[in-house]
Design brief:
The chain is mostly helical and 282 residues long. It is 77% helix and 0% strand.
Length: 282
C-alpha cells in the first residue's frame, strides 16, 4: 500500500512539472521520456538482481495493450482534450478510475467485486472530484475525458494478466521501450528529426522528472502494489494523486487549497480507510 501511494505521489506531483512542456513538441518529449525511463529501469533491474524475460505469445497483446492505452493514447488524449476541456474535467476523469478498477479488477483475478471496495471507490472518487474541482467542456472535450478515463484504467487492468510472469520490473521495462519506439516514429513524422535540439533547459528538466519519478520509479511501485493487493484495492490509491497535485501546487507557490479542497482530501482519506483497512484480498 505504501508503494502504491508513493507512486501516486510522484504522479500527482507531475502536475506542477508538466506545465513546463506545454510548448514543447509533444511526441519528441515523450519519446525522450520513455527512452530515458527504460534505460533507468534496466540499470535498476540489474542492480536489484531481477531478470527481465522476453514476452511470448499472448504476453505481447497484453503489453501492447498497456502501452497503447496507458502510455500513448493517454498522453495524446490529455493534449487533445485540453483544447476542448478545462484541466479539471480531465482530472475528474482520472479521479473516476477507482470505480472502474474496483468493478473490473476482481474479474481479472477470478474474484468478484466487493461491496466494501465499491463503496470506498465511490467515496474516493467523490473526494478526488472535490479536490480537482469542476470545469467546462464541449462534446469533444467530454469524449476525450472518457478516453482518458478508459486509458488510465487500461494501464492497470491490462497489466494484470502479465504481472505474474514478468513482475513489476518486466512490465515496466517492456512497456517503456515499446512506448519509446512508438513515440520516436510519431515524432519523426510530426515534429521532425531535429525537434529534440530545440528543447529548452526547463523542458529538459521537466522531461527528466517525468522519466525518472513518474515513469521509472512510479511504474515499479504501482505495479508492485497491484500485484500484491489486487487491482481493486490498489485502485483506491489513485485518489492520492490529486491530493498530491494540490499540495505540490502549494509547494511551488500557488495559493493554499480552498475549504472544498480540504473537504475532498478528508473524503479521500475516509475512502482509503474504508477500503484498505478491511480483510486482505485472496
Amino acid at each position: 500500500m505504501v508503494a502504491g501511494a508513493a507512486g501516486m505521489v510522484f504522479v500527482g506531483g507531475s502536475t506542477a512539472v508538466s506545465g513546463g512542456l506545454s510548448a514543447a513538441p509533444v511526441a519528441t518529449a515523450q519519446a525522450i521520456r520513455y527512452a530515458v525511463a527504460c534505460a533507468i529501469l534496466l540499470a535498476l533491474t540489474r542492480a536489484a538482481g531481477h531478470r527481465v524475460v522476453a514476452p511470448r505469445g499472448a504476453d505481447w497483446l497484453w503489453l501492447l495493450g498497456v502501452t497503447a492505452t496507458g502510455l500513448i493514447l493517454f498522453n495524446i488524449a490529455l493534449v487533445r482534450g485540453s483544447r476542448h476541456a478545462e484541466p479539471a474535467v480531465l482530472g475528474v476523469a482520472v479521479a473516476s478510475v477507482p470505480i472502474l478498477l474496483a468493478a473490473l479488477g476482481p474479474i481479472l483475478t477470478r474474484d468478484r467485486p466487493r461491496a466494501r471496495i465499491l463503496l470506498a471507490a465511490a467515496v474516493v472518487t467523490a473526494g478526488a472530484a472535490l479536490v480537482q474541482g469542476l470545469g467546462r467542456c464541449d462534446a469533444t472535450g467530454l469524449a476525450w475525458a472518457v478516453t482518458v478515463l478508459c486509458c488510465e484504467a487500461g494501464f492497470t487492468l491490462l497489466a494484470v494478466p502479465v504481472l505474474g510472469r514478468h513482475g513489476p520490473w518486466g512490465v515496466s521495462v517492456h512497456t517503456t521501450w515499446l512506448a519509446a519506439a512508438t513515440f520516436v516514429a510519431i515524432a519523426l513524422a510530426t515534429d521532425g528529426p531535429r525537434a529534440a535540439t530545440g528543447l529548452t533547459a526547463k523542458e529538459i528538466l521537466a522531461t527528466a522528472y517525468l522519466a525518472f519519478g513518474v515513469t521509472a520509479i512510479a511504474f515499479v511501485l504501482w505495479y508492485g502494489c497491484v500485484a500484491r493487493i489486487g487491482p481493486g484495492r490498489a485502485g483506491l490509491l489513485t485518489g492520492v494523486a490529486p491530493v498530491s497535485a494540490a499540495l505540490s501546487g502549494v509547494a511551488v507557490g500557488n495559493p493554499a487549497p480552498r475549504p472544498l479542497v480540504w473537504l475532498g482530501i478528508a473524503a479521500v482519506a475516509a475512502g482509503l480507510a474504508l477500503g484498505l483497512t478491511g480483510s486482505r484480498s485472496p
